[in-house]
Specification:
The complex is a heterodimer of chains A (361) and B (341). With 361 residues, chain A is an all-alpha fold. Chain A contains 16 helices and no strands. Chain B is mainly α. Chain B has a single domain, classed as MetI-like (MetI-like fold, Orthogonal Bundle). The two termini of chain B are 37 Å apart. Classes of the chains: A mainly alpha (361), B mainly alpha (341).
Chain lengths: 361, 341
Amino acid sequence: MTTVAARPPAQKAPRRKRTSSGGGIGRYILIRFALIFPTIFILVSMVFWLMRATGDPITAALGGRLGPDQLAERIQAAGYDRPILVQYFEYLGQIFTGNFGTTISTNKPVTDVLLTSGVATAELVLYSLVVAFIIGIPLGLVAAYWRDKTPDAFLRIFAILAYATPVFFSALLLKLVFSVWLKVLPVAGRASTGSELQMQLLPGKTGIYTIDALQTGNPAILLDVVSHAVLPALALGLLTAGVFLRLVRTNVIGTLGADYVDSGRSRGVSEYRLVTKHAYRPALIPIITVIGLQIALLLSGAVLTETVFEWKGLGFQLAQFLTARDFVAVQGIVALLAVIVALSNFVVDIIAAVIDPRVRY
Amino acid sequence: MSTTTMVPGVRKRSLWSRLPVVAQLNQSVGLQRGMLVTGLVLTASFVLTAILAPLISPFGFSQLRDANGAFGAQNPPSASHLLGTTVGGYDVLSRVIWGAQTALMVIIIAVILSIFAGVLLGLVSGYFGGWLDRLFVVVFDAVYAFPSLLLAIVMSIVISGGRSNLIGGVLAAAISITTVFIPQYFRVIRAETVRIKAEAYVESARVLGASNSRIMFRHVLRNATRTLPLIFTLNASEAILTLAGLGFLGFGIEPSAAAEWGYDLNKAVSDVSSGIWWTALFPGVAIVLAVLGMTLVGESLNDLADPRLRGRRSVAKSSGVVAETSVAPGGTLTDESEVPQ
């Protein structure tokens, strides 16, 4: 009743031809997968050329501190004196093998930095998505059902406020109220030092603190980890919750007016069920598509949230490297984020295609 | 308003009531009108604050002392400093007021630049088509998918090396924001151009021997710009957020060159941990109010343009033919309002 029923295989000759040539989900996945590479290629190239337009990374990082001779020596050792096209192709080749270079300020492989802090960012983004779903979707349904009534008015104002508040400002406010004034939640970090030490000792540590805390089997550590995550997840989640709320509202308003909802109502289906099942399900497809776009927004937001809460993820590292003017590391982080965005958009498109057969090439 | 009494075939409505925002104001009712009016008031006060900053601000944005000596750092709000002083010893109220000016400058430059670049590229790409069009679409789609703040950071490194004076800083921020926005204008204008290109009047202009540039700028562009006021308001609010984000990460403008809300919030992070609230609260509230004003205007315009979201009672009031009242031809502007059949 909610999705389009599968068409009988043999109807008319032209129909049959169309389904045999363009319908397969497998073919769609292949085409969509192939499209990832140009996207990544364009973004990575853009970052490379833009960053190089400012000069070589060694001068940028160490310009004021080393003499011209030492600088030239370092530049030669790192290979930055070669023709830029050679460097460009070498860079592309390295990225293909997962090598993003070595940071200048800390002299570590960028890949290591990316792995350890990437996990932290992923954890934060996941938490905040959970917050966004829990807050955004039910409120969106409420706003759609009582459209143009008081609850809708308040919820729309809430959604616009959630968008209008910069994530670092809401983070600062949450921190001020809950950590400084009420003193119920920790000020910053991913866990307190004691818990972090215990988790470091684990043989099978994943870097995902929630899982590591579960592995220690110590409820105090789990509580510690979760309480550190509450405020960052709330700050970042509220931003996205506003988007989800508006999205659910708009789409459910559209489906609530559909004939099958009226027919459901005439059959005596409860209003609750009409909203949460009949109207909500078909409204899901555009929502899933937009989540793909949200990932870019969430990553931008994560950079700012992590800075406020000293959450040692990609964004926190990025801010540190930016201050140190370590552009090799910056370039690596930005390139990795480009790959993540391209991949997540791919996954979202596939999910949308699986749910809705009309969304295919 | 005489608009409601319009009868088909009688005079066109007056120019005043056909102006973009005025027309929608007449069309709106109830909550929607409330939102639109609130948005317009907030936006107007933001613009006024920005323009009148030299007159209404008690001190200069980089002033550290007056006749009574130095202001002192991190003083709580008092009679001489209504909103207190920052960790650097500046007056918070003055910096909040002057910050509006910086934000307004950046918005204006960023939006003008991106309208010009985005509209031109979209027009050319959509009108001529071919491999150039396909290349543009792929590149701008890739850029569009990228986290906007990171793109702005990279651009700001390229333009100014990350830190600079007033003119340089404002320009760097504006150009960084422009790069983020060009894909949006490009998409909208290109889609419109492709649609309009197939219209009969374009065909007849071509038959009459009009040149490509005449068709593009006279026949296509004029009909493709109806959606621009709407994207403009939504983008202006996003520009403030991006500017503040850049400033918060330390890519803003030096405090001695101009006041910038994001930079002030960055300096306030450590204050918050020690319970000093006034240095963070007021610049933050300023950002929220400015963004809120423009978002409310943009949202209301978007809703009024979308017949499905327009308040039901106002449908009868919405005068004129459909093509005249709908801002977004053929439906909606944003993906989020798409509805499956």
